[in-house]
Design goal:
With about 190 residues, the chain is mostly beta strands. It has a domain of about 120 residues. Helices cover about 5% and strands about 40% of the residues.
């Protein structure tokens, strides 16, 4: 989600920046994206409505790395059931995070709903690792493609360690129930 905000801020010609703070290690730039120029949308039932917002970018003076992105929406349309939303993303420096430097280490959100309910959420990302692509391997058995809508019951052959698992890791499973399909003549087959 943060990528859409950042792209909208940095590539939108309607956005105006101003320096808010200067520190020895970082500069803070404020920005505003009017609803008429915004490409960020909020869900409102079955439709998506654009929202205006403002915020700030903390940029490292020497590295030009984004250190923090804050986003505060304008008052949202009643159809969204929300009044406002605030988001703060913290980024590590490129030196400490290596190739994953543009993955936020923490995201904090504060949403105010129309019924005055407030929701706070904190997501922390840690222990990220790049997974090398798996070597191409030949399937054990090849056959005709499975038809769409076919339900298959599987049993994982080994537990998944959710603390260590990453996208691209190999898994293995066994089909536990027979799969029944229809052939073109209408007869059921196994």
């Amino acid at each position: 989600m943060f990528a859409s905000h950042l792209l909208d801020v940095l590539s939108n010609l309607a956005v105006r920046f101003q320096v808010l703070d200067e520190r020895p290690d970082a500069l803070e730039y404020g920005f505003r994206v009017p609803v008429e120029a915004s490409h960020v949308v909020m869900g409102a039932g079955r439709e998506w409505l654009p929202t205006g917002y403002n915020g700030s970018l903390w940029i490292g003076r020497d590295s030009l790395d984004v250190r923090r992105l804050t986003v505060d929406t304008e008052e949202l349309p009643p159809q969204t059931l929300m009044c406002k939303s605030n988001m703060v993303l913290e980024f590590p420096s490129r030196q400490t995070a290596g190739p994953l430097w543009f993955v936020p280490t923490q995201t904090r959100t504060h949403d105010i709903l129309r019924d005055a309910t407030e929701i706070d959420s904190v997501s922390t990302i840690s222990g990220c690792r790049e997974v090398p692509p798996a070597p191409a391997s030949r399937p054990l058995r090849q056959g005709a493609p499975l038809p769409g809508g076919l339900h298959v019951t599987l049993n994982f052959d080994a537990d998944i360690d959710w603390d260590e698992a990453a996208a691209g890791d190999s898994i293995s499973a066994t089909v536990t129930l027979p799969i029944l399909t229809s052939n073109p003549s209408g007869a059921r087959r196994r």
